[in-house]
Design brief:
Keywords: Membrane, Transmembrane, Transmembrane helix. The chain crosses the membrane at residues 6-21, 28-51, 89-111, 117-134, 146-164, 197-221. It is found in: Membrane. By secondary structure, the protein is an all-alpha fold. It is built from twelve helices and no strands. The protein folds into two domains: 2-62; 72-225, no CATH class. It is globular. The termini are far apart.
Amino acid sequence: MLILLYFILTISLYWGAKWGYQKTKKVYFSPLLIAPCLIIIVLTVFHVSYASYNDGAKWLTKLLQPATVALAIPLYRFFPILKKYLSEILFSVFLGSMMSIIAAFSISWLVHLNKSLISSIIPYSITTPIAMGISSKIGGVPTITAVFVIMTGIIGMIIGPWIIRLFRFKSEIARGVLLGTSSHGAGTSKALEISHAAGAVSSVCMVLTAIISFCFSPWIYTHFLH
């Protein structure tokens, strides 16, 4: 019974936050920010352990992977556009992905974080299910990685549109590359608010970023951390 209750609680809080975001369009009402905070408050007030809560919520976590696969729908719809700009997209995503990995490693090394924390932070710009897998593979802590992924998504949702306005990005391709490469699923959600074309490009960039990071993160761990 409690498992079902935690499951319903999570969905209710998420949809409530989503309704608030759709009504206000204010980033501080983003479900990524509001729902986790409310869940933490509820668990703390009622003294519920995370293990007990996760018995019900883990089924939603398992849906992250098929949800990521579902992003192939806009890819199919806008395939001609993606094919036309494929080389530009690949170069931009590769450069952005490598900069992300190098920046995470460099900053973590400069502030003298231990190897486990560095490994947890490196995949911060990848969508959650893949980032947690990479983190586990290179010796990180997946739960810490998930926190940094969420933080990156929220920051990307805030800063991304501001950068687009500041540099006057007119191209839907450029907008999609920016948001998808830097802030994964949250950025893709914001890109879809801008236009379907930007959302499709962002989806591609999010997947490509995950593939590139999956290939290079273990190499960086082996040569610089191990």
